[in-house]
């Protein structure tokens, strides 16, 4: 991405003198005194376009629904100048849902980029390799054992804690089991993760079978993956996690980029591979856990967002910030479809992402098999 530094550019292409710009194959190199770098205009253009789509998705989420509200009335409601009915629908009902969808989608997109970059495997999504399943098992355990009254809304603090502990335990187990001969490979990581995913799904089913019907029904609503009924407290948890973790990830952008090379190359370039992988892995687990705690295990957003972002930007590596924005756009779009296609009946957003994501996963598996990158 744009974090590529001047020293990564071949010496022959560097500017002849400090303080000058140069252009080369979609890149603009610059140096002013001791500071230099390389910018990629296409990456920034794609990021701006995706942000515009996200903004449009938020406006559509606030405006469209069983009671359509014109955009000018949406703006009036947000600024406190609208009618009481418009304020109730826009501010109290639709705004927290839209914010939760935006932040959860962003967290899933960032988590997917981290996992796929660290394992160098496009199938290494947290919702396929057991991390989200660990968060689900932890969240269900918190709902069943923690006395949560309404799928996380009443006693919401226990759900993210349970989800985070479950995701950390699952990721730690996968990492230990995949670690062999001083390193891990993406293929082994994915295989171990698939096994852990199946085991944790069985554990979740056993927990539901042991619960009474009211507790099981509350947990099943959360497990479906839905933004229905989400409030500002759900958006607040995910927003707080992003506020902490995104600056950390921006500060670790160079280790993130180098981690996408093989281990030997990354070590030669100065990256402490194991330490960097552990820090980035913990960040990815935290993002997947809080996103799952807020909206349930919404499938395929974390899988698809990084690959879509990479193809849009034309990058060889996975663009981290664009992946997060694409994830937000995907979840907002899926939630709009879930609300509008069968209106007045609303589908859980996880049903829409699963319906669209399953063919995408099959295509990805076939493509990886043809390319020989699936293992």
TrEMBL record:
Keywords assigned: Cell membrane, Membrane, Transmembrane, Transmembrane helix, Transport
Stretches that traverse the bilayer: 43-62, 74-91, 98-117, 129-150, 157-177, 189-209, 235-256, 276-304, 316-341, 347-366
Superkingdom of origin organism: Bacteria
GO biological process assignments: siderophore-iron import into cell
GO cellular component: plasma membrane
GO molecular function: transmembrane transporter activity
SUPFAM superfamilies, per the entry: ABC transporter involved in vitamin B12 uptake, BtuC (SSF81345)
Subcellular location per the Swiss-Prot or TrEMBL entry: Cell membrane
Listed InterPro entries: ABC_BtuC-like, ABC_transptr_permease_BtuC
Its membrane topology: Multi-pass membrane protein
PANTHER family: FERRIC ENTEROBACTIN TRANSPORT SYSTEM PERMEASE PROTEIN, FERRIC ENTEROBACTIN TRANSPORT SYSTEM PERMEASE PROTEIN FEPG
Family recorded in the similarity comment: Belongs to the binding-protein-dependent transport system permease family. FecCD subfamily.
Protein name according to UniProt: Iron complex transport system permease protein
Species of provenance: Micromonospora olivasterospora
